[in-house]
């Protein structure tokens, strides 16, 4: 096979892999807000792509965050922000045993896909 064809195929494959791992930009904005405001996050909340980097407690389907499961992360000191409503594909939110403070935001009611809280 011609070198140029192989190179072109390799570039296409790499672009496909990169685009498959990218978290939806709206979901990424919410998670980055949480990451910047919360203290004592899970240690593996590193990297730029929560879905592609396998952040603890984050599960994704088709680049959308579907699960935020932070049970027993007692070290998290935070308020659950109203912007949580922007995780439009969230089906599961588990915060058992966490040290959250403040009111539960009304915006949780707008998460139409949420089936487990």
UniProtKB/TrEMBL annotation:
Its EC number is 2.7.11.1. GO terms for cellular component: membrane. The keyword Kinase applies. It is a single-pass membrane protein. It is an enzyme of class 2 (transferase). The keyword Plastid does not apply. Keywords: Glycoprotein, Kinase, Leucine-rich repeat, Membrane, Receptor, Repeat, Serine/threonine-protein kinase, Signal, Transferase, Transmembrane, Transmembrane helix. It is found in: Membrane. GO terms for molecular function: protein serine/threonine kinase activity. Transmembrane segments: none annotated. This is Non-specific serine/threonine protein kinase. It comes from Helianthus annuus. The lineage of its organism: Eukaryota, Viridiplantae, Streptophyta, Embryophyta, Tracheophyta.
């Amino acid at each position: 096979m011609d070198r140029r064809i192989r190179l072109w195929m390799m570039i296409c494959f790499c672009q496909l892999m990169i685009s498959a791992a990218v978290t939806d930009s709206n979901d990424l904005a919410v998670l980055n807000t949480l990451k910047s405001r919360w203290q004592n996050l899970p240690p593996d909340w590193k990297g730029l792509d929560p879905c592609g980097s396998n952040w603890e407690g984050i599960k994704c389907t088709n680049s959308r965050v579907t699960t935020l499961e932070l049970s027993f992360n007692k070290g998290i000191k935070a308020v659950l922000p109203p912007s949580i409503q922007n995780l439009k594909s969230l089906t599961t939110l588990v915060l058992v045993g966490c040290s959250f403070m403040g009111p539960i935001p009304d915006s949780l009611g707008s998460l139409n896909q949420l089936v487990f809280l």
